[in-house]
Design goal:
alpha+beta; two-stranded antiparallel ribbon; 9 helices; 28% helix; 21% strand
């Protein structure tokens, strides 16, 4: 493997990564045209969102690609499209790279996941990293972020936002060794309501998704918050404080408002962890 494979993929704000991917043209054609919904993408997505307990649509297919990242060659990495509704396009798809999907144990330093967002609603590619910096400055857990220049089969796709994957490695960094052992869920048009948790009793999380192998598949931690919200106003703060860090949640909500985060829990109960 040419280059220094011990070199990790950093998140330094003064560094733009160079990501060069090659795969069969037919595979990339399939990748870039994939959607999470049948039929017209946006209309189908809105119909799904209106059904509170419908399971998440199937994920994207994985393809095998060869990569050169900052001059270091890694062969046979996993590559797939990323996105749900707002960021999904054919011309410049958001991408996920998993270095060890085909070759077990293959990493670039300690990096095994690379997340590349097209940030199609932010042509300057500045908002994501700046917003995460505000969250971090406020003392709230947040991913790290910088930029990457991406090329596929010799065609430049331009700048992407390289974001730290919200997975166990990030949890250990933020919460210390063993901090990845709890439950992590992602909410997609989801909230702490009876409608959004009705399927939990039959093992279906609906618009909630367990994101790690340690996450409780029954959704019990989410149901505990819902139960606390049902109490009378006089007892609400006491009961909610048993299952939620209220101070940290208020900081989280406030920062979403400060940065004008519209695709969020506070603004639309969407795209949150």
């Amino acid at each position: 493997l040419p280059g220094d494979v011990t070199q990790t993929v950093n998140f330094s704000s003064d560094h733009m990564h160079c990501v060069d991917l090659t795969l069969p043209a037919s595979d990339f054609e399939l990748l870039r045209r994939q959607t999470r919904f049948e039929g017209p993408l946006f209309g189908a997505g809105l119909a799904w969102a209106a059904q509170c307990n419908t399971p998440l649509p199937e994920g994207y297919a994985w393809f095998t690609a060869n990569s050169r990242i900052n001059g270091v060659e890694l062969r046979q990495v996993g590559l797939r499209k990323k996105g749900f509704i707002g960021s999904v396009v054919r011309t410049k798809p958001s991408l996920k790279i998993k270095t060890d999907r085909v070759r077990k144990g293959q990493k670039l330093g300690d990096t095994e996941r690379i997340t590349l967002n097209n940030s199609r609603q932010d042509p300057a590619r500045m908002v994501t990293c700046l917003a995460y910096e505000v969250f971090a400055a406020a003392g709230h857990p947040a991913p790290r972020c910088n930029l990457a220049n991406v090329m596929v089969n010799g065609t430049p796709l331009g700048p992407y936002v390289h974001v730290e994957a919200v997975k166990k490695a990030m949890l250990r960094r933020l919460f210390g060794e063993g901090g990845d052992a709890g439950s992590l869920y992602e909410g997609t048009v989801a909230d702490f309501t009876d409608a959004h948790t009705a399927g939990f009793a039959t093992g279906e999380l609906g618009h909630w998704q367990a994101k790690t192998s340690d996450s409780d598949p029954s959704g019990a931690p989410l149901l505990a918050v819902l139960a606390a919200l049902r109490v009378d106003d006089a007892s609400l703060e006491q009961e909610l404080g048993k299952v939620l860090n209220i101070k940290r949640f208020m900081t989280y909500w406030a920062v979403e408002v400060v940065v004008g985060h519209l695709d969020s829990y506070s603004a639309g109960a969407n795209n949150f962890f």
